[in-house]
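Our platform keeps sequence and structure together, in a single record for each protein. This encoding replaces a full spatial description with a residue-level series of whole-number codes. We quote a single record here, exactly as it is kept in our systems:
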Amino acid sequence: MSSTGRFTMGGKKKPHTILGIVGDSATGKTTLTAGIANILGPDRVTVICTDDYHRYDRKERAVNGLSALDPRCNYIDILEQHIRLLRAGEPILQPIYGHDHGTLDRPIYVEPKEFIVFEGLLGFTTRSLRDLYDVKVYLEPDEDLRIRWKINRDTAKRHYTKEEVLKSLKKREKDSPAFIWPQRTFADMVVSFYPPENNATESGAHLNVRHTLRPTLPHPDLSPILESGIQNGLHLELVRDRDGKPVDVLEIPGNISDNDAKKLEELIWSRLPEAPELRANVGKFTDDKNASKISHPLALTQLLIAYHMVKAQVGVHAI
């Protein structure tokens, strides 16, 4: 994607625009957030992990027989209070959870910037929490893919053995459907990465992605893409979601060409006149060999979410 730029917007804009990203452990929340921040401008974005609001450290959870996915293990009320403070332009003392050793560490002083991203496990748990976000995104990758991602991450970055990760997943197998999955229904956009049919072991640059776009946000009109001659699995259609309600579903194949990805990127930019110079290198991720790679489906996902953040900031809902 293109080089980083800046944007100016006329008229009155919201001083603080808030994005919520929710998903199970190792669904790609941090990677997605990093790309969105790059598009909007890192100096304009405050990122907070809601998992820092754990009530107990790792040892205490083990003693209590509870997992971090259980709302009882988290200060949900303090999280809500902090979102309200940041929205009002006030600083907070953000708690810090040290994932490396499972400890509750010293809090840090955080001031709100123009864009604020809250990403983690339980951000949509209560209605009062959900009402505080301008844009809500839920990550739902293929479950086998998520498990591979979790094993790779927790062994490489959090000093677990593979056996310990699998044991943790076994302990949490009832908590995910009880506490995490129900939050899907409250998202404006559900993002689902999954391997192509001809390569079930794919876990990186060539993953397909499915965007479930709910009418709670006015999504950009991407229908011209369907008339552009782009083939190979890129399509947009109106379907019924799991709850029976109508949603648009955008499928972006992992093998989309550089040229076709560029066409879709430019179409989204054309729907964003408020930010004519806003460009960034996005779609970056680290593979299981700790190598930096680029994914077009990831980049386009990050761009579409950034589109909604800019629209929410300026209060423009024209499609």
The CA atoms of residues 26 and 150 lie 5 Å apart. The chain has one domain: 17-314.
